[in-house]
Amino acid sequence: MKQRLMLKPLRRATALIGAGALLTLTLAVEAQPFETPPPPAAPRELRISAPIEQSLPNGLRVVLAERRGVQLVSAQLLVLSGSEADPPQRAGLASLTAGLLTKGTRLYSASALAQAAETLGGSLDSAAGWNQSTVAITVAVPQLDAALGLVGEAVMRPSFTQAEIDRLRIQTLDEMKVAYAQPGTLGSLAAQHMLFGTGPYGHPASGTPVSLPRITRADLQELHAQRFRPDNAVLVLAGDLDAATALKLATKHFGAWQRPAAALPTPSLASTGLPLDLAVIDMPKSGQAAVTVVLPIPDNEADRAARDVMNSVLGGGYSSRLNQEIRIKRGLSYGAGSRLDARREGGVLRVSVQTKNESAAEVLALVQGELDGLMKAPVGNDELAARKATLIGNFSRSVETTAGLNEAVGALIVAGRSPAELQRRIETLVAVSPAEIQAYAAATLVPARRRVVVAGVGAQFMDALKARGGSESGSVTVIPQDALDLERGDALTRR
């Protein structure tokens, strides 16, 4: 029947493209005998020179990752303090401070600073995260001198005008109204709070609707004075540049940056998690549920490659186990995955899945099963080869641009690691064995270490969740959406 139905289209195609071309097309279609993709090829050698590190007398580190032949340079001034430095009751202070760096300085208004960067063919961007605050720009090599002048102006001499403070605060609060209505956002923030509790990593980095209105101009100025100093900063340059020129330009634009006499504050990053392992955020109007599972991940040098490959197998991409099991086989979600959030004092493995409210308990059971599976059995050689190829390919592509190379170097510096690790990245990933992954999983994915949050319409999944025993303790803490408190260190609800 299929052959008869195809006759008319074939005759029409023959008339349009000719018999010879049709024969070539037919042969090409028929020459696809493989039901599975070919095995991944061996990874190509990564051609990256070892980053060169120098320093200025005021303590500023200057790190250059050379990329010859491309007339671009990406520059990033990296301050090694971020949201972990937010004072109590001031969640979001570091994020707001960093966002305002490019919203006006002593010499430029916000619009004038943006226009000056655009004149150079670049865009001046600033942001903060855990253990970092950055100002970055990418320009052609001849424009680097002027571009670094703008970076220096933004980092060292921000104006923090009240009008710009109010404008950015309102924008951030408006974004939060949308974000906090999403079960995935609330679930992720609550899980982080459960894991880190009273510690500096326990609050939302961008702040909360309650904390942001408390922040004053004086708070911004104080944080800037304490943390934005040359002995707490690194200038990262990536592109067609030599070490002598990099040092000369760094000296010109940052050499006069004064190093304060007072020692840099170094608060402890230790934390005590909340005594909960499964929480439900009841969101009566939510159209879907979000399942989030988080675990603390130690950042041991010997285990980094095994950790990264394990995550790739678990949830790092379309062909990962979570996506295969939850989306492709069962159609319970548009996407299921995991990611690593590395931080200076350890990190987080985060599994996130959004699904129908009524299938939340089933999805949680599937996630727990995949975590258990990595602990109990080694990864097969074919699967491991494919996941390594994906991980290596993504990394190789990410450092092909000067901006990506700069970001990769900066990430190592923020984590307190040597930029030289970049050169060894591929060979360490290739060397990871199935036994190493299983051993790492057995040590880190222990059920007692897992913290689970399910956000959605509790009435539609609560009974199934209790019946399946979604946590190690078997108990479930229910938190109404309007009672959730992401600032309070020792609990998830308001007093």
How does this structure look, described?
The chain has two domains: 52-254, Metalloenzyme, LuxS/M16 peptidase-like (Cytochrome Bc1 Complex, Chain A, domain 1); 278-483, Metalloenzyme, LuxS/M16 peptidase-like (Cytochrome Bc1 Complex, Chain A, domain 1), CATH 3.30.830.10. The chain is 42% helix and 16% strand. It has helices at 2-17, 19-30, 93-100, 110-119, 144-156, 162-179, 183-196, 217-227, 243-254, 304-315, 321-328, 360-376, 381-398, 402-414, 425-430, 434-444, 462-468; strands spanning 52-55, 61-66, 72-79, 125-129, 132-140, 233-239, 278-282, 289-297, 336-343, 346-355, 451-456, 477-480. It has a six-stranded mixed beta sheet with strand order 1-2-6-3-5-4, sandwiched between helices. Helix 3 (93-100) crosses helix 8 (217-227), helix 10 (304-315) packs across helix 13 and helix 12 packs parallel to helix 17. The longest helix is centred in the middle third of the chain and has 18 residues, at 162-179. Residues 1-17 have low confidence and may be disordered.
Q: CATH class of the largest domain, please?
A: Alpha Beta
- Name the CATH architecture of the largest domain: 2-Layer Sandwich
Any idea what the CATH superfamily of the largest domain is called?
Answer: Metalloenzyme, LuxS/M16 peptidase-like
What structural class do helix, strand and pairing data support? alpha+beta
Q: How big is the Rg?
A: 26 Å
- Main sheet specs: 6 strands, mixed
Shape: globular
Counting structural domains, the number is: 2
Strand content range: 15-25%
**What is the ordering of alpha helices and beta strands?**
HHEEEHHEEHHHHEHEEHHEEHHHHHEHE
The number of helical segments is 17
First CA to last CA: what distance?
A: 71 Å
Strands across the major sheet, in which order? 1-2-6-3-5-4
